[in-house]
Each structure stands twice: as C-alpha cells, then as structure tokens.
C-alpha cells in the first residue's frame, strides 16, 4: 500500500511547494517581484484599460455608456479604416519580404572574412540607429517637390512631371515608405541573420565541398535549413514592427494615405470626443493582429527547435 502511494506521487510529479523549495524557496520570486510590478504597471494595465475604453461610448465625457463591440463594428465598417488595413498589409508583406531577402544577402556577404569587416559591420547599423521619425524627415527632404534630390532625379528622367513629387499619389507614398523602411531596417535583419550564420559549423561546408557541392547547393542544403529558426525570429520581429507602422505614413501621407496606426492616432487625438473610443478600438485591433502573428510564428519556432539536428 505504501509502495503504491509512493509510486502514485511520483507519477504526479512534484507539487508547487516542492518545486518552489527545490528552486531556492521564495527568494527568486521576491527578486523578480519589482520587475513584475513595473511590467504590470506600464504594460498590462494600459492594455486592459484600453480594452475597457474601447467598449465605452464617449469615455472622455462625464458618464460613459458601455456599448460593447459597437466601436469595433464602427471601425471595421469605416471605408477609411478598410483602406488603412489594406495599406498596412501591403506595406507589411512587401517590406518584410524585401528586408529579409536583402538582409540575408547582406549577412552572407559580411560573414565572409575580408579586410575591414569589423568597420563594415558597424557602419551598416548606422541607418538602424536613427529613430524612425528622424529617418522619415530626412527622406522627406529628399522627396520634396522643390529641393529634393530624389524628386530632381525622377523629374530629370521624366518619370515625374515638373513640380510633381512621389508623395502626390497613393503608390508614391507607399513606395517612399518602403524605400525608407528598407534602408533603415535591412541592417537589423542582417544583424539577426548574421548571428545565425556564425553558429553554423564550418565543418559542414568543408564536408560539402569535399563531396563536390557547389556554393549554391551549400546555400540551399546547409545555410537555409540551419537558419530556419533565425529567419522565423527575424520575420516575427519585422512583422510585428511593420503592422504598427506609424511614423513613415504620418510623415509622408498624413491623413491622405493612413496606416492603421495613423488612423487610430487621428481618431484619438485629431477628432471629436466621440471618435476617441473608436480610435482606441482601432489600436486594440492592431494589438490583436500582432498577437495572431505571434501565435502563428512562435509555435513554428518551437517545432524547429524540437527537431533533431
């Protein structure tokens, strides 16, 4: 009987109290408690408060009324938000794809040994170090219809009419935002992928060379399979950043070509008090999209890590 009871306890595993005692008691939890309080105060509480505000009608007035998902229905039915959603999806797909492809190529190049490699690695991170709004303002001057060098070149090539600018049309704003974002963020993608390249054993390439594999075959059969997890991490970071893009479209298009974040900002801070709750609902929708992206990509990374090497 005692043996059966002991085996039953072993099958159940250690209790919560036993795990706490085995891990050093309550000391680790007390040490991280201040950090958890800060996270709850500056991250969790604002999210919960935003969710609550999105369910109210005129929360800035004295006695707001609970309206449920009416604000979400209003936002999803708004043609301007639908256009902003399409704009954000197009921007996300194109920017993330190009940044990963260019970042992978750049990472492969700077992973090779050559003179001055350290300086090159440091210098390519300069665009990424600039805040996005600063980069947007820098490029905005180059897109200017009177003094912008890019506008002057395009007009000289007769791709733009005299006095015209890229920022005068929807696709011009989209192209301007893509160019600026790719210039700024490709180094970040290259840095993440370079970290993955540097942990690939050189012996794999040496063995493949002995077997007669070409560099292109080595890239497809060794480099890409070994970089799958790093590619997913880069995809996750860039996708989460791209779906909440604000600075570029705010600087280049304003309310003419808004992204979802620009739409939420206009509703909350440039509209009437009745527009504030729909603006918060739009921001919650952006958050939900980010959560969905994470729920798709994070399990894929876990599956890759579980696969035998």
Folded structure, characterized:
With 309 residues, this protein is mostly helical. The protein has 2 domains: 15-53, no CATH class; 70-306, MetI-like (MetI-like fold). It has 16 helices and 2 strands. The chain has a two-stranded antiparallel sheet with strand order 1-2. It is flat. The model has no long low-confidence stretch (mean pLDDT 83).
How is the secondary structure organized here?
Blueprint: H1 2-12, H2 16-22, H3 27-53, E1 56-57, E2 65-66, H4 70-76, H5 79-111, H6 117-123, H7 126-129, H8 132-142, H9 149-156, H10 170-197, H11 202-210, H12 215-226, H13 228-242, H14 247-252, H15 260-269, H16 276-306
Antiparallel strand pairs: 1-2
Short description:
The protein has 309 residues and is mainly α. The protein has helices spanning 2-12, 16-22, 27-53, 70-76, 79-111, 117-123, 126-129, 132-142, 149-156, 170-197, 202-210, 215-226, 228-242, 247-252, 260-269, 276-306; strands spanning 56-57, 65-66.
CA gyration radius, whole angstroms: 26 Å
Order of strands in the sheet with most strands: 1-2
CATH superfamily of the largest domain: MetI-like
How many helices? The count is 16
Structural class: mainly alpha
Shape: flat
CATH architecture term of the largest domain: Orthogonal Bundle
Specify the helix fraction band. Answer: over 70%
The CATH topology of the largest domain is MetI-like fold
What's the CATH class of the largest domain, please? Answer: Mainly Alpha
Please report which band the strand proportion falls in: under 5%, 5-15%, 15-25%, 25-35%, 35-45% or over 45%: under 5%
